[in-house]
Each structure stands twice: as structure tokens, then as C-alpha cells.
Amino acid sequence: MNTLEKLRSGKLAGATRLDLSLGLSELPPEVFSLADTLEVLNLSGNRLSALPAEMPRLKRLKVLFCSNNPFSALPEVLGACPALEMIGFKACELTHVPSQALPPGLRWLILTDNRIARLPDTFERYTRLQKLMLAANDLRELPPSLAECRRLELLRISSNQLGALPPWLLQLPRLAWLAYAGNPLCTSTDVCPTSAASIEWQALTLEHKLGEGASGQVYQARLAEGESVAVKCFKGTQTSDGSPEDEIAAALQVGRHPNLVPMRGRLEGHPESLPGLVMGLIEPSYQVLAGPPSLQSCTRDQYAPATRFSASTARTLLAGIASAAAHFHRYGVMHGDLYAHNILRRDDGHALIGDFGAASLYRADGGHTARALEAIEVRAFGILLEEVWARCEMPPPHWRALSEACQQPDLEARPRFTALEAALAS
Q1: CA-based nearest residue to 251, from 178, 191, 209, 198
Q2: Are residues 363 and 388 in the same domain?
Q3: pTM over 0.85, yes/no
Q4: 250 and 315: one domain?
Q5: Domain encompassing residue 356
């Protein structure tokens, strides 16, 4: 019995989440039998091109996923859904986003991988907006009203047609995670000298899969001389954050640092012509610092309840991350996703930062713009510092003030990563 049959039989009465991916061309009316309880509705992977006018009857609906459906426009009826906070329409062939389609309580909007050329200039209405994902569209400009979204923390605008970052974007007081690679505004930057090289697929012996994410698969492999390495093979041309080519360029640009996952080189000659990276193999003693944000937390990572740090371990962890961040900003790389879920840590606190999928290159000598981009990433570090501080047994008293300094609304007053490294190492 599939999910729709269970719904029709009444077996799902009182459900708060419903996943329907059955090649549907219209929304089954039985969905509205859950009008009083349904909070999350996932309709991804169907053949929907419209939603019924009755959608506002789902009065408790907070989250709606409709990715991989042939919509040409974001349905206007969504704007009337009273509790709707999160909307996901990834890879839907969208060309039009009516202002009426966005509900007033919007916190998280995903419109990645569509054909949107412009957005409505009505974002002053969405004062709760925290997360906006617009990568892989045809945007030539951002609506000026986005400057009024003072709670916006994460913005993905990679792989569009943007000729410049608007000045107001570099002044948003809470922006912490920004990705903009793959736009005309990005000038070519020479890769800094590293020991990374091109590594041929035929020179590798694949052993087993280590893991799989949204952007690609990671395998353990062995080089001809016997060294074990990790190989990341990208799945396609776009991810939610940007393109594989931009990720590869950033990963090679940063070079080597004790707190970065070591990059061996670019993968060449994949039998399916997939792009890839060859990296050093990480010891199993390293574990992910935290899990990614949930639908409820939106922009905040999820730590295991038992996570605790000694002051010494926390200091090693944070100082190492600050040192790595200072290093990649020295070479004009903005990580764009400086989160605990992208950090590996050992029991002694040694940390490794990886996953440059949201990274963007910039001119390190670019004056005000370069300073503002680093200040945006400093806010992300301030949030991380706050999270670690809260889980530290006896944190140094000045860490709270340091975290607040990183997160203050005035970007120019935020400390540099070099100053943070020094303050944490002392």
C-alpha cells in the first residue's frame, strides 16, 4: 500500500508530514483531510504544474516542497497560506515569481536551478526572511527591496548573470553565509601556488564509497604508488550552492593549511567526463562537529545533546578554524558555508574545514568590498564561537564579548580573522 492509498484509507489521519512522489499531475483532494494537522508537505518529483485554490485550507502548513515539477510560475495561491514559512521549488522550470505567491511569514525560500530573470521588488514585506537560495537562474540584478530583509542570514546567488554585488548587500547586518561565484561580476583570479596537480582517473584504483552528498560521491582510492586518497566525483553541473568548477577553483586556490582538508589535485579523465577532486584521506578519528540545520532551526546547526568541550579543546578548535579562515581570505577566498557541519574535529580539538561548494573568489586587495566580504564570514564564525562557547565546561570569559563583536551589525567594526586567531590562541 503506497502513501496515497494509506491516505485514502484513513490510515494517515492526524499526520503532520506527507510525502507524495507518485508522478501526480494534480494534488489529490484527500490531502485536505489533513487540513487540521499537516505541517510539512513534500510533492517533489511529480508532474504538477499548478496547485489548487484550496491550498489555504491547510491552515497549519509550514513547509512545502515542490521541486522537480514542471511549474512555469510560482503558484499565487501560496501567498494566502496562513502558516507557510518555507517554500522549495528547485529545478521546476520557473520563469515567473509573482509577488502574490510569497506568504508574509516567509523564512526560507528555495528557487534554485530555474530560469528566473527577475524577482518582484516587494521583499520589504518579508521581514522574517532568513534563508534565500537563488543559484542557477538568469538574474541580472537583485530587487532593491531585499535591503529591507534585515534578518537575512544565508544568500545563494551563484551561477546567475549578476554584473555586480549591490552596495546594500554588503551592509546587511545579519548576513553570514554568502555564495556568488559563477556570475559575470567574478573576475578571473590566478590560483595561488600549491602542490596540487592534475591526477588522471587511470592512475587511481577505487576501493569503496565513503559517502554521498547532494553534489557528489566520495570514494576511497589508491594512487599508483600506494597512497590512499579520497576522490570526490561531482554528479552534475549545478548544486544548491554553485557549480563544481567554482568549488574546484576555490579548493585549489586556498592551497595547504594545517586546518584545511588537504587537496591533492583536480581529477582528470573520468570515464563519464565528470569533474572531480582528489583529496587527502582523513583519519577516522575525525568526526563532524554538528549536523546541518533542521526545518525548524532554519540557519542553525544541530549539535548532539551530549556535545561538550573542555576549555583547552574548544580553544584548539576555534583557534584552528580562525587560522584557516584568515588563510583563505588572505588568498581571496570566501568559504560561504562556514558552519559546524562542514568542520571535522578530533577529540583533542584539532579541526579540518572542507566543502568549498559555496565558496567565491574575490580580489584580496579589493578595498571596501574585500573587507565587507571577510566581515560577513566573521559573523558566521561569531555564531560558531557562540555555539561552542555554550557547550564549553569553563569557557574563558572574554569569548562571549568576542562572539558579540563578530556579530555586531556594523560590519566595519567586526574584528579581522587574524585578530580572532590571536585572541583565541592567547
Answers
A1: 191
A2: yes
A3: yes
A4: no
A5: 287-425
